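Need tokens for this chain, all 239 residues.
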Amino acid sequence: MTAALLLHRADGAPLSTTFRPGAFGRDDPFAASREIAWEGPGSMIAARVAFSGDIDVASFPHTETLVVVAGALTLTAAGAAPVVIGPQAGAVIARGTALRMQAGAGTRFVSCAAASGEPSAPGVTPLRADADLQPSNPPPAQTLLGPAPACRSDNVFTDAQTQYKAGTWDSTPYHRIVRPHPLNEFMHLLAGNVQFASPDGSVLSAGAGDALFVPQGAPVGWESRNHVAKFYVVQTVPA
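Here are the structure tokens for all 239 residues:
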């Protein structure tokens, strides 16, 4: 089977991914409702959370990117205006942020979180589907099975200590060979469809509204036949 792990299906279809209840560290504010799909080197996790209620956090214990898939989540950092995240929208909470988190019944989100030894610059950074995308590098030519795509991105958050970056990306169609993925990557598809191939020939199809995680080193291919856009988190783990 493909090494891409499904975290959410927009159509509510069952997932083959195995989740386990668990906290991300002893101070995890979502400890009671977090389900972890993957945890690996570099102190990173991919997870899903069902959360409702109000929580005040004096200092958020890690950096976490959230994408809401049901309900709405309001994040109010100290001294800042509230950020309301509805379905198919997201935000990054930086480690060390003081904030209030509020959600109604039935709120669910997928997430990718990373720990770090020192607090990063605190705050809440929204992810935008209508981001100001700028040209970015396509996949290496030697990995492509066809023409090079035109790719664009808008990286809105970087934690240099953990090599954790988040933002929005899009691309014209392209086909890439199965090869070890160069980094940990969380993605929530905003538009288009992608087929993720594995070495045994099996293929995982994902479309708009679906969320996935691919670990660094996992052998996976990519084929898209239409415009694809996504929110992403990437992290490079030293070998």
